[in-house]
Write a structure and sequence with these properties.
The protein is α/β, with parallel strands linked by helices and 482 residues long. It has helices at 15-27, 45-48, 60-63, 79-92, 188-199, 222-230, 233-257, 259-272, 280-283, 302-309, 393-413, 439-442, 463-470; strands at 5-11, 33-37, 99-101, 103-111, 116-123, 129-139, 163-165, 180-184, 203-208, 214-217, 296-299, 312-316, 319-323, 326-329, 334-336, 339-342, 355-358, 361-362, 370-371, 375-376, 382-384, 419-421, 431-432, 450-451, 479-481.
């Protein structure tokens, strides 16, 4: 094989990319690969986000890799702990030596004649471009833009005399203590920021247009701690992981099958943690059913504790305009603020925004149907990793990286080099790739690929079912090998 052609080029050195590299290193040690990272550090999301209190809202027994036990003290870990876990995993498996930083992939062109990808890479430090060649392109770029978050346009914004901050670009020198801070939003970032800012001495108002479902979990997993005392580390981790997979799946299915009862249980939990008479119906009763959008998890009820102490409050209203001293709401209320934090979401960027070309024809991602949640129909030797939206991200990307390793092994054993998912001849109904109704998905429907109506063209967002599919036969009739 040409020495200048890699077996695999991985794009992205975050949680997904590091996991994929570790899998290749351990299961296919003769495979040549490089990881290209556009930023100057590894860790992806967990290096990018620096806002106070940043943490996972998935437990680390399922957010962690299946091959690398989580050894931290808490199940709902902070961003710094997760970053250290990702980087220590990369170092332990030696894949940190395969990462090239400041290398942004902007385009990739497949040549059937050469059976390889030609990848255009821009060096961040100089702007110079170069080409890399690989047999397989593995995109671990996540699903959102790293350079800018989503912020709506509000009237009067330029008149505000205070500071406006998006959590994705948190200033390291932002003064918190004694400040009046309005956090706009009701999602995972907002419910993390509010108690963290309150602890730093701010008075915080969470301003939401509509509520989200919020569920409190202990920061420490008592069952996992007990298992750690009774079993060897790897066995204890595996048992805790399976326990949490089963539990989270059961909760999701309960919410889907019995939404009315699930809503009542969730609101009962909120009422128990707030002062008597608190207006739960206004501030914590969403207009949609549980898990139609991602549910927010908070450790040890910290958000409710901040509200109960008076250091934080929730206002459910809509913004009419910014004013020099804060925000004017449509109800006529005015909120004074020194700092406004726009925790208003992400901008989606499917497959890293990379321009894809197959034999001189541009690939429009939204025109394609996804095979096993990891490949696009008609596109050769391209794999991508996108995690769950209703469970831990890593559960899904672990399945994909393991299946990819098996796919590479199958190709080698059968003296093949190219694999392409092919749609069945009969017409197939389609559904959105991500079926949740969260705002950042709704804004980007036209950019996302589609799913079919049945496997292997559709995943069910259920780990056990998806694991069965992704651990099944490589040759399933939908792949064309050559």
């Amino acid at each position: 094989m040409d020495e200048d052609v890699l077996d695999v080029l991985i794009v992205g050195a975050g949680l997904s990319g590091i996991g994929a590299a570790c899998r290749l290193h351990t299961e296919l040690p003769s495979t040549t690969f490089t990881v290209l990272e556009s930023r100057d550090a590894s860790g992806g999301t967990w290096d990018l986000f620096r806002y106070p209190g940043v943490r996972s809202d998935s437990d680390m027994y399922t957010l962690g890799y299946d091959f690398k036990p989580w050894g931290g003290a808490t199940a709902l870990a902070g961003g710094a702990e997760i970053l250290q876990y990702v980087r220590s995993t990369a170092a332990e498996f030696g894949v940190d030596r395969h990462i090239e930083y400041g290398a942004r992939v902007t385009a990739a062109s497949w040549s059937s004649a050469d059976a390889r990808w030609s990848v255009t890479v821009t060096k961040a430090s100089t702007g110079a471009t170069s080409s890399r060649f690989c047999r397989f392109l593995y995109l671990c770029t996540g699903y959102y833009r790293y350079d800018v978050g989503y912020t709506p346009s509000w009237p009067g914004r330029e008149s505000f005399s205070g500071q406006i901050v998006h959590p994705q670009q948190w200033p390291a020198d932002l003064s918190i203590s004694g400040k009046r801070i309005v956090v706009i939003g009701s999602g995972a970032t907002a419910v993390t920021l509010v108690p963290a800012l309150a602890q730093l001495g701010a008075h915080v108002t969470m301003l939401q247009r509509s509520p989200s479902y919020i569920f409190s979990l202990p920061a420490r997993d008592a069952v996992a701690s007990l298992l750690a005392k009774l079993l060897p580390p790897r066995a204890a981790y595996a048992a805790a992981r399976w326990k949490n997979i089963k539990l989270s799946t059961a909760v999701y299915e309960l919410c889907q099958k019995y939404p009315k009862q699930a809503r009542a249980l969730l609101q009962r939990g909120v009422r128990k943690r707030l002062p008597a008479g608190y207006d739960v119906d206004t501030h914590f009763s969403p207009p949609y059913d549980p898990w139609d959008q991602r549910m927010c998890l908070v450790p040890d009820a910290d958000l409710f504790s901040a509200i109960s102490s008076g250091s934080a409050e929730v206002v459910t209203d809509q913004i009419e305009s910014f004013t020099p001293s804060g925000l004017k709401l449509k109800s006529g209320t005015e909120l004074a603020a020194d700092v406004v934090v726009t925790a208003t979401g992400l901008n989606l960027l499917p497959l890293g925004g990379i321009e894809l070309i197959v034999d001189d024809s541009a690939v429009r991602v939204s025109d394609h149907i996804v095979y096993k949640g990891m490949m696009l129909d008609g596109v050769p030797n391209l794999v991508f990793a996108l995690g769950y939206t209703n469970a831990s991200w890593t559960l899904k990307v672990d399945l994909v990286s393991a299946h990819f390793a098996r796919l590479l092994r199958h190709l080698k054993q059968n003296a093949k080099t190219v694999v392409v998912p092919r749609l069945p001849e009969a017409p197939m109904a389609t559904v959105p790739f991500i079926e949740m109704s969260s705002g950042y998905f709704e804004r980007s429907r036209k950019l996302l690929p589609l799913q079919g109506e049945a496997a292997p063209w559709r995943l069910r967002q259920r780990y056990a079912k998806d694991a069965k599919l992704l651990r099944g036969r490589v040759e399933d009739g939908a792949l064309e090998f050559s």
